[in-house]
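Subject: two folds for Thursday's group meeting

Dear M.,

Sorry for the delay on this. The cluster queue was jammed most of the week, so I only got both jobs back this morning. I'm pasting them in the order they finished. Each block is the input sequence followed by the predicted structure tokens. Could you check whether the formatting survives your parser before we put anything on slides? The first protein is the one we discussed after the seminar.
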Amino acid sequence: MQYVGLHTQQARNNFKSGLLLCLFPCLVVLLIFLFSVLLVLFTENPDAEESTPLVDRALVLVRHLAPYLLGGVALWFLIAYFANTAIIRSATGARSLERKDNKRVYNLVENLCMSQGMPMPKIDVIEDDSLNAYAGGINKKTYTVTLSRGIINKLNDEELEAVIAHELSHIRNRDVRLLIVSIVFVGIFAMLTEIAVRSLRFTAVGRKSKDNKGAIIVVLVALVVAVVGYFFATLMRFAISRSREYMADAGAAAMTRRPQALASALRKISQDPAIEAVTRDDVAQLFIEHPRHRKTDKQLFSGLSGLFATHPPIKKRIAILEQF
């Protein structure tokens, strides 16, 4: 494997993550246009004479729909963005870990923060014997490093320090904010898909009239567009998550100057990362390793499965760390 320097890897991942994040609002605009084209195509009277090109008629509809749809998405995004920290904390079953409860953990976090000139984040613990950890929060007041009870008890000081450094790297690089943005966008498309499905069921059981047939066509078009948006938004979310894990690994190696310690910790984590309280994939992607991870090496479509993975293969992460 070709050696990749720390700063080069960080620059590459930053560029990829920024590009992927910019694609989310572009995808929203593109889907509004696609919806308008399909709506014009399937709802207009085919016998009527129309000299205006299809695209121009669709653009007129876009100008009417865009302000309302983009405004609704923006409002939805803001509400979900600021509520996400509390939602994630509740979904993982995390609780505050005080200094008096575990001075060892506090000393490791505090020493790393002092060495990097970072403010001390809050520390939470998940009462689970498995090994995992994640960083949460969107600003200095809410930044949190969360560790499972298993990872605290089963890793030695150097390994635990490396894991904490990984999570602090997520905070320093603002990965948590980036991932939450991607999670919210995917959630928007998921909700739109659910609304379209429910609307289709409701419309289909109505009276069979000309207006009802038209309504069914509109809902079907909306459903197709929402599903397409959800699919591509999910792929982008996964790509962001994978690239940021590589960057946090590199950041932890630079912070502790002991990449082998993180490699050793990842080996132990890979043996038992499952956190019982975590049932949602959007929350699972925040962890250092997927807490509901299943071995997929022997899957028939293992090559394609990488596109739908929230984390890069842990063997590959270890191999990169061993280069330093």
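Second protein, same layout:
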Amino acid sequence: MVLLEPFEFGFFVRAIVAAFLVGGLCAFMGTYIVLRSMSYIGHGLAHAIFGGAVVSSAMSFNFFVGATLWGFLSALVIAWTTRKNPIGSDAAIGIVTTASFALGIAIISRSHGFTHDFEAALWGSVLAVERTDIIAISIVTVAVAAVFFVAYKLFLFNTFDSDVAEFYGVPTGWMDAVFALMLAGTVVVSMRVLGVTMIAAAVVIPPIIARLVTNSFGRMAVLSTLIGIACSVSGVYLSYFVNVSSGASVVLLSAALFVVALGWARVRSSLSRRPPEASGLSRLPSGSVD
């Protein structure tokens, strides 16, 4: 059967498994990012980590460890720059991450030996997914789930009002550092499936769709995760037939779903504001209860 043909190949099965894990992981992390109005950091950190990945490769250092540490340090530098100087977070993210990305491009332009590998990292490729990638994604997913399970209320408090949380004794500095480390790990393990240029959309679009549907944080987190999984798996599956990069396919599918959700939300909002007569409902006569 043509529709089942991709599953005959081991690389595609690995890609589907990786997409399932990455989609859920990115979307779940994105819930906190969107609610904290930090959507730009997903885009910026992905570019910063690309620079770290190139440096790690050039130094023959472990890719996952080197890129994660680079991303973590980039996030800390962004936070430090914002606190110690009168610079907005968006400006700090732009400066730090673009400088890191430019460093990676500069190294690649000087050494052409690994250009193909990093083209896959830029745009995402199902062919690049290996067993070690799935293991790394699984480790990060379990670690993120464990941290949020243990410190769920602290993260929630810090997300909605960090100043008040700090007043009540929540270690907001440590919370931000742990979150930065988890986000860096998420971006690193997602690079091969989604690509650097597409990770930000995978982090931001599913939680925004979920936010259009519900006002409950718990439901938003669950729905965002499910949407992320559905879009990632479907996008990778479609990429096999349309012959485009897996990252682009995932993001375009997510964007299409966002348009549908936005249209539905607007229709629902307009209907809720219409008086009963406009919606075709007739009022009961005064005093007619039975």
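Two things I noticed about the second structure. Residues 2-269 form a domain with the ABC transporter involved in vitamin B12 uptake, BtuC fold (CATH 1.10.3470.10). The first helix runs from residue 10 to 35.

Cheers,
T.
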